[in-house]
Amino acid sequence: MKPNIQTATGIVVGILALFSAGCANQTTVPGLPETAYTEIATDAAKQLATLYTPAKTHFVLKANDNTLFNNAVKRQLRNSGYALHESTEAAPEKTEAKQLTYVLDALTNVAFYNYYRLTLSVDEAQLSRLYDANNLTKPNYWSYRK
After folding, report:
1. What is the span of the domain harbouring residue 84?
2. How many distinct structural domains can be found in the chain?
């Protein structure tokens, strides 16, 4: 049986469509003013303080970017009394430090939905909260999942 060029092309186009659909779902965060990043980072640090005692908790922040939000998060955590180690790799297995990562993203289309979402991951636990893009009000409580 001779391979059909149209069938092979159709398969390749289908695979590329699946990959591009996956890329289309990933959102980028439109720029916010520095005060907005500081406000969100402050809110995150306050929530972490309710679950992880400052001055007794050591976080390993896995973030290697030098963005306004990343700098605001580091500043707020340190100001709250946390020991903070920055790393591009996972924390060693035999340490008492808690692995901390975050994702700040827009819900699909910030122009349509008008919400940002912050998700904090501390070891196996996740905390998440929405922020209104227009005035940074918090339309919901923090959600917590282990």
Report:
1. 29-145
2. 1
**Distance between CA atoms of 17 and 56, rounded to whole angstroms?**
49
pTM for the model: 0.72
The dihedral through the CA atoms of 119, 104, 73, 44 has a sign that is negative
Q: Which residues fall within 8 angstroms of residue 138, CB to CB, at 6 or more apart?
A: 43, 129, 130, 131, 132
**3 in a structural domain:** no
Q: Tell me if 23 is assigned to some domain.
A: no
Sequence-ordered list of residues with C-beta below 8 angstroms from that of 142, at least 6 positions apart, any chain: 47, 127, 128, 129
Mean pLDDT by 10 residues, the chain (146 residues): 48 38 42 86 96 94 82 95 84 76 80 82 94 80 90
